Q: What sequence folds into this?
């Protein structure tokens, strides 16, 4: 991302923006680690919807409080998007997740969601080239996760396919961050956050296309709702 920033020749962030980007990266990296841990523990049915909804709702409410309410079309799109996120990320059947009602699972999901919201709010305060801001945020996330690894001391054993997938996921993640920063700099934060939070729809579609996974009629309704929410929000 630093190479991309140099190639694009964008403006380098000032000190305040660097601090906001580092803080955003630390929050994002820590939250993503919590999110991955919850998924690995089999808590996807609980973690995904709570994290996605909190990550979208908190920045949206803050931005509305600071900048005023958007148009009626956008508000309708927000509601439809939240409904779509819930449908797409909800478990297929009750009892699918043994930990779905465990208080620890709720706390983990809430922490991840609040952390994602913190990333969105902090990164919005940083000005300068989106590529440079994204690069600075990755310095923060690398530092935070490195400290967490040093404290927790987990097993670092990984095979080559796992390393490759991790690198590929990081490439997509930092690219998406740069695109989100650009969108938030050129429009309302709440609109950028809500549309970004529809990412589970893309995950479901890719799982259907490449992994041949089946999804219920509720997920199909959620996908259609997500498609309808985007033009409504953009119309505002």
A:
């Amino acid at each position: 991302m630093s190479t991309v920033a140099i190639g694009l020749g964008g403006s380098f962030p000032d000190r305040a923006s660097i601090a906001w980007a580092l803080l955003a990266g630390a929050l994002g990296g820590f939250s993503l680690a919590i999110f991955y841990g919850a998924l690995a523990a089999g808590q996807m049915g609980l973690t995904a919807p709570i994290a996605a909804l909190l990550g979208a709702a908190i920045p949206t409410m803050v931005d509305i409080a600071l900048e005023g309410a958007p148009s009626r079309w956008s508000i309708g799109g927000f509601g439809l998007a939240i409904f779509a996120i819930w449908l797409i990320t909800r478990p297929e059947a009750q009892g699918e997740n043994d930990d779905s009602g465990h208080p620890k699972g709720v706390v983990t999901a809430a922490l991840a969601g609040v952390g994602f919201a913190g990333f969105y709010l902090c990164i919005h305060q940083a000005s300068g080239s989106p590529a440079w801001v994204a690069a600075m945020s990755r310095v923060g996330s690398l530092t935070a996760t490195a400290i967490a690894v040093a404290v927790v001391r987990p097993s670092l054993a990984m095979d080559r396919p796992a390393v490759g997938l991790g690198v590929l996921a990081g490439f997509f993640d930092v690219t998406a961050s740069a695109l989100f920063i650009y969108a938030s700099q050129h429009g309302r934060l709440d609109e950028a956050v809500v549309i970004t939070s529809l990412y589970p729809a893309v995950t479901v579609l890719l799982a259907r296309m490449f992994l041949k996974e089946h999804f219920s009629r509720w997920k199909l309704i959620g996908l259609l709702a997500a498609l309808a929410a985007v033009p409504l929000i953009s119309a505002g």
Notes: DSSP finds ten helices and no strands in the chain. Residues 11-235 form one domain.
